[in-house]
Amino acid sequence: MSTAASSSTYRGRRELGPAPVGGSEFGNAARPALRQRNSSAGPDYAAIHDDPEYIAVKRRLKLFIFPVGLLFLAWYFVYVLLSDYDSAFMSQKVFGAVNMGLILGVLQFVSTGVLTILYGRYTKKHIDPRIEKIREQVRGQ
Amino acid sequence: MTHPTMILSAGATGDPAVTVSIFAIFVVITLYIVYRVSNRNTTTSAYYTAESNFTGPQNGVALAGDWLSAASFLGVTGAIAVHGYDGFLYSIGFLVAWLVELMFIAEFVRNTGRFTIGDVISYRMKPRPVRAASATATLVISFFYMVAQMAGAGGLVALLLNIRSGFGQAIVISCVGAIMIAYVLLGGMKGTTWVQIIKATLLLVCIAMMTIFLIGKFLYNFSDLLSSAANHSSLGGGLLDPGAEYGKNATTKLDFVSLAMAIVLGISCLPHVVMRFYTVPSAREARRSVIWIIWAMILFYLGTMIMGYGAAALVGTQTISNAPGGENSAALLLAFRIGGTVLLGLVAAVAFATILAVVAGLTLTAASSFAHDVYATLLKRGQADVDSEVRVARITAVVVGILSILGGIFAVGQNAAFLVSLALALAASSNLSTLLYTLFWKRFNTLGTLWSIYSGLISCLVLIVFSPVVSGSSSAMFPHVNFAFFPLTNPGIVSIPLSFLAGIIGTLLGERHEAPAKQVEMEVRSLTGIGSGLQS
Description:
A: two-stranded antiparallel ribbon; 4% strand; elongated; B: mainly alpha
């Protein structure tokens, strides 16, 4: 939540539809500190954007989601392509009636669960506290 | 092994009564809840997003309710029972797709937008053309998805109530549609969300009961379940191997790659799925919603796998294929085999409730997009008052509801799962590229946005028209003419990369520095939620 005054004007403006909050409107707001000097203006996005803490958290997040995203999509398509084009490999029996395809399929369930847990932990540890810190600075506490 | 079908198709006296009464109880209870929770839907944020007052877990279960359509419940179980491994392949895509939602979409969308997907896409672009494009995409995708659901409803009616005449089915579809419109009109997002939560819980309980029964029946030996399934299948051991459905030739193999692509990339940007993230108060709750739905999906699709093979083992594939409703009847025949008329009635009623709830969610999405993007922003140029915007949303809901009833009546007999896969291809082609670019690519601009939305949408629609689905094959909509120059039934493999490419070309041809301040604002806001007025 930003300050009461600014949040109410902001809300009033947003009722009108696509937020007409232009960067140019607030470009003149106080630069050095992140806090809002003028309570009638919105946050100074440009200052936040250049803040080292913000740059660090952005990098931290992208460092997780892009490699991991590519990885699970690649793993999914490898599985699909193997099932589609190498059915001899996927039909190999591993134990009883259970074959390679089924095992790799169940491993897709496992990897999805594991990545969900990892993402939840990573954001809780490395992302949320830093974002909270930036938000507190903006609120001017 | 044949008697359940015979009872289901011949002795239609007992079963429909049980089904209809369980379904009626569900409708009465949910309508009462909808009426109780939504006495003051007077503001836009109450009507569209329930004042963003739901918690992550609640919204996660509601998301499961929105996503688990009759097509995925009856369709996936049936596909596994009849086609074995190839049916199981579907469910993997349905699950993995939620990781895209978790990492790339949910939190950013919650921080940036307010009511619709257009809020996010038009945030730093020229609002009018981009909103128009985004609303068009939303309406087209929702329409395909809705017709799929209603077509499924028609098939289900034939199967469950043993109503074979077209007129009888039309009446039942109209009744289902009328109840659905009532939910949306009365309940808005709050009421609709509670319907989803109740329905998803019922569905998951049903699946859990049947799965636990099957695990017990085969004494915890999964391999025995598989062997028994293969023994009762016309495919024999082939049931457990890939290729039963898609391995026929090079075209069907490529078609499967295309389908897999549409599934894994399309789900995360379906408009009615994206809209669910506006019902929670913060990005963190949006993340929790996705984490909850992923666990629900893991349980659900492990359940459908066991149920699918279980249906093959206990009922037999031949019996399933010959039953009225074909593949779609597998879960119901299994329910009858396990728990007789009562369980069959329960599962059937849950399947009905599923269609009802999913269509209600879609109607609300289409109505919000029209009222918010088209009416308030484009027609009234942002000057619409709240009362009239909500009124327009309600009127649109009725119109969309009636259109979907008509679409459902005409689409009876079309394959529901197939129509859903087209909606997914449309969503992946028009929304995913646009959303990812606008969130993560600085240079992206209005021209790029328009190119990526329209190229995806139009190429997808054109390829569908010229595919074997519409003409040139015995199962096509127009079997007697042949203008099918595109060999695949799913256009995703062409239209999805095309929209990514067109987004880049459009951007390079457009303005170089379109709105740098707005871009900075959107980036900061999507990541931190600063300026959104949301909780942390």
